[in-house]
Design goal:
Layout: H1 12-39, E1 60-69, H2 76-80, E2 87-90, H3 97-106, E3 110-117, H4 138-151, E4 155-162, H5 170-182, E5 186-189, H6 198-204, E6 209-211, E7 214-215, H7 222-239, E8 241-247, H8 254-269, E9 272-274
Parallel strand pairs: 1-2, 1-8, 1-9, 2-3, 3-4, 4-5, 5-6, 7-8
Helix pairs in contact: 4-5, 7-8
Protein name: Divergent polysaccharide deacetylase
InterPro entries: Divergent_DAC, Glyco_hydro/deAcase_b/a-brl
Organism: Alkaliphilus metalliredigens (strain QYMF)
């Protein structure tokens, strides 16, 4: 016995309805997943359990600069594993400078050169063999800064390590800015001197410049650092953006990393977005 066959006729109007329905269903399944991944990049995934999935409206942005990489200091691994785009300042010419610059770049953090500069007080030996001191010629400064940039791979900017004396020295800072300008790099003034002329000289040479607003870990305990992050948020909300500086090694290390991790939900709740320092250059500055 032959099996009966059935032929279904679908009008053009009904066919269009079916196609539209399929497209809508596809958008709310696969389409939404793609959109969520775009809004929350891969580096957000590990913090997903502590950060709400609904993204607050951005009301301010901050750059968190972590100084003193290059010596495998305390907290290096913990900072590397923070799944937010931090900015890592690597001291050149140290045993781990090149390795940690590469690790930072691979982990999605921005890299800058942490240039050792002479302070008003302290032992010049702390600067190492190739620190910037006031007795150097401009040509010697050029050479040291260029070597530092070459040593710290992936660096897109620089800031001063110590340097309360040098950041007041116009001749030396002009020599530094000349090299940064030639290499399309920006400068962050760590503001170790209240009478620093870094911004003035950077503007003179058209070098993009940012200034530190908050030191995170002058007091080395988690609760104190969290209070500093709250102050950072206030500055960012008032001014649109702000730069903070913390440390690996004995000045902060694991304690600073832990405080930052604990404050990520707070920053998101306040509408504060963490960005690489270079992204603040076109934003309002404190």
């Amino acid at each position: 016995m032959k099996k009966k066959g059935y032929i279904f006729y679908i009008s053009k109007q009904n066919l269009n309805f079916i196609l539209v329905t399929c497209l809508v269903l596809g958008f709310f399944t696969g389409g939404m997943r793609i959109q969520r991944n775009e809004q929350n990049p891969l580096w957000m995934s590990r913090e997903a359990s502590v950060i709400e999935e609904t993204v607050a409206e951005t009301k301010g942005i901050v750059a968190i600069v972590i100084d003193d990489f290059g010596n495998n200091g305390s907290g290096t691994d913990e900072m590397m594993n923070i799944i937010q785009p931090l900015t890592f300042a690597v001291i050149p010419f140290l045993p781990y400078s090149q390795e940690e610059a590469k690790r930072a770049n691979k982990a999605g953090h921005e890299v800058i050169v942490h240039i050792p500069m002479e302070p008003k007080k302290g032992n010049p030996k702390w600067l190492g063999d190739r620190g910037i001191t006031s007795n150097l010629t401009s040509e010697e400064v050029h050479s040291i800064v260029l070597e530092a940039i070459e040593d710290v791979q992936y660096a897109v900017g620089a800031n001063n390590h110590m340097g309360s004396k040098i950041t007041e020295d116009k001749r030396i800072m002009e020599a530094v800015m000349q090299v940064l300008k030639a290499n399309d790099m920006y400068m962050i003034d760590s503001k170790t001197s209240q009478t620093s002329i870094v911004k003035e000289v950077a503007d003179q040479y058209n070098v993009p410049v940012l200034e530190r607003a908050i030191f995170l870990d002058n007091e080395k305990n988690v609760e104190a650092i969290k209070r500093q992050i709250e102050k950072l948020a206030v500055v960012a909300l008032e001014s649109g953006s702000a730069v903070a500086i913390g440390h690996v090694g004995p000045e902060g290390g694991r304690i600073t990393a832990e405080a930052i991790k604990q404050m990520l939900p707070y920053l998101q709740e306040k509408g504060i977005e963490i960005m690489p320092a270079s992204k603040l250059l076109n934003k309002p500055r404190q």
